[in-house]
Fold F-box domain-containing protein.
Amino acid sequence: MNKIDFNENDKIAILDIISYQPHDRHRACITLIEPSLDVEFESPTASLGNFRVLPCEIFDWVIKHSTMHAVSSLRAVNRRMRLLVDTSLPYKGIISNAPHVRATLERTGVAPHFTVEEVFWILTHGACRVCGDLGLYLWIPDLERCCYNCLREEPDLMPMSERDARAAYGLTARQMGQLPVMVSLPGNYKVSTTSRRKTSKFVSETRARQLGCAVHGGDDGLSKYIASSNTKAKAAYDKRLAKRSRPMSHDSHGRVNNTVDSIERYLVSVYLPYLDLESYTSHTGQACVGCRIAVSRARSLPYNDLTALIRRCGKVYTKEGLLNHFKECAAAQDLWHTKQVHRVVSDRVH
Ligand SMILES: [Zn+2]
Ligand SMILES: [Zn+2]
C-alpha cells in the first residue's frame, strides 16, 4: 500500500470522516444509568463523627484500600460523608469517568470483593488482557479488561454458572462465598438486543478451579476429586459438559468453540472507558468507518480473510491509534480521498 501523508490540520478532518462510536456494542453488555457527580443535593448539616480527626491523606488511603461496597456504605452515612468520599482520590476518578461501573458492581453483588484501588487500576490500564488491543469492556467475575473481539469468543471469557462450579470442583455454598459470585441483571443484551428476564449466578472458571485446588489440597487432590466424585450434581454436570463439548462450531482462531457470542458473556460484562493518567483523558473508543464499509461489501472473500476483516472491524482505537490505523486501512483512505475529490469539485463549482 502507498504511504499516505497527512498534516496536523488534516487530522481532525480525517477523524471526522473515518471514525464512529460503536454504541450498539457498548449497549450489548449491562447498561445501568447512574447520576453523575454533578447532580446537586442539599448542603450537608450532619458532622463526620470520629472521622473528622483523620487527616485527608489517611482518609484517602483508607478509601483506596476499602472495597467498593464498604465505600458505598460509607457514602450512605450522611451528605457530608458522601461529599468527602466523592472527592477522595482515586475513588473520584472512578465515579467521574465510569459512574455506572460502581452501580454495576453493587447491583451484581460483587462490590464486596473488589477494592477501590483494583477498580481504579483497571480503569487506567486500557489493554485487553487476552490480545493486548485497546479493550473497552470490564469482564466482571475476574475484574479484567477485554476487547469486543475477545469478549465474543475467547474461551476464558465464557463465565461458569455457580451451579456448575459447585458441582465441577466440589465446592459448598459457604466456600463459594470466597469468590465474586455475580448475579446477572434482567435487560437487553448483545448487539441483536436479546432480552433476558431471569437472573442467574456466574463465576470465573479460573477462580473456581483455584478454589477447588485450595479446598482439595492442590492439583492432585482436585484431580482425585474429579475422578472419584459420584454425586448426583457431578453426574448432571458431566452430562451437561459432554453436551456442550460436542464440536458444533469454530471461532475465528479455528478453535472448536460452541460459545461464540453466547449471551452469558454479555451478562457478566459492562462497558468501561479507558482513563489515560498521563493526559487525564477518558478514551471512549473510536471504530473505523472504512473497515465497517469493507465488511458490508465483502462478498467472495476466503473464510480466513473474511474473519480477519470482521475482527478488524470489531476493534476500537484512541484518536491517535485510529490515525495510525488510517495509514494502513485502504478502505478508510478511499473514504478520505473521495471526500477530497468532492471538496475540490465543490470548490470549483462555487
Ligand atoms: Zn482482546
Ligand atoms: Zn479501517
Notes: Residues 23-36+47-284 form one domain.
